[in-house]
Amino acid sequence: GAGVSQSPSNKVTEKGKDVELRCDPISGHTALYWYRQSLGQGLEFLIYFQGNSAPDKSGLPSDRFSAERTGGSVSTLTIQRTQQEDSAVYLCASSPPPRGRNQPQHFGDGTRLSIL
Amino acid sequence: SQQGEEDPQALSIQEGENATMNCSYKTSINNLQWYRQNSGRGLVHLILIRSNEREKHSGRLRVTLDTSKKSSSLLITASRAADTASYFCATDLEEGNEKLTFGTGTRLTIIP
Q1: Does the CA dihedral A26-A29-A30-A31 come out positive or negative?
Q2: How far apart are the first and last CA of chain B?
Q3: How far apart are CA B110 and CA B112, in angstroms?
Q4: What distance in Å separates the CA atoms of residue A30 and residue A53, rounded to the nearest whole number?
């Protein structure tokens, strides 16, 4: 079946511009996560959506970052007034409804964002 | 700061040898997971071990968990060139929601 889909796969933009990154999770998955991965580094948690609950935004690095999840499915991560330090790979993951909290996450291939 | 730290940061071995990677974490966990990431791709889930388990096997993979030492190890036996990738541990904190906190990763290179 279809996996997690992210678009675009690559994005190059000028400093100061706004960008939108999209994530299509696996159908039926209630949880959706956004992570940021800088070159050669681990994953940095950004935001987590679970069903209709209020999202956990504790990982967003600044108020320039925001995310929405419409209809419990597709999510958009928006970065306003981009800075060069925002350059990274942005990864999205989804997981099925929690059953004792032991659910693996399924990742997309990410969006590689480069800020000039 | 990172909850998990993998050790070593990089590892190169000959094809056919066994590879061992270690992960340490700081706070009590609900479960620990290992993921693989090939270059330019997303992460792929390998194995999950719960906090009340000590060892788990999946094919050529063996994972151990020592909650008293807050550490885990991933052993890949009879390595293959296709095992070349970065490996990350991730923890699901006991107190909190389902989000995972990832370690810094081990870059594994299998030399044919």
Answers
A1: negative
A2: 36
A3: 6
A4: 10
Handedness of CA A115, A59, A97, A101 (dihedral sign): positive
Any idea of the CA torsion for B62, B66, B72, B74, to the nearest 10 degrees? -10
Contact criterion met (CB < 8 Å) for A101 and B98: yes
Calculated CA dihedral for residues A80, A84, A89, A92, nearest 10 degrees: -20
| CA atoms within 13 A of residue B78's CA, in its CB half-sphere | 2
A35 touches chain B (CB under 8 A): yes
pLDDT in tens, B94-110: 666 678 889 889 999 99
CA distance A33 to A18: 21
Question: Which pLDDT tens digit goes with each residue over A5-57?
Answer: 999 999 999 999 999 999 999 998 989 999 999 987 789 999 999 888 889 99
Q: How far is it, in rounded angstroms, from Cα A83 to Cα A67?
A: 17
Total Cβ atoms within 10 A of residue B12: 12
Interchain contact B23–A (C-beta under 8 A) = no
B41: chain A residues, CB-CB within 8 Å: 109-110
The count of CB pairs under 8 A between chains A and B is 63
On whether any CB of chain A is under 8 Å from the CB of B27, the answer is no
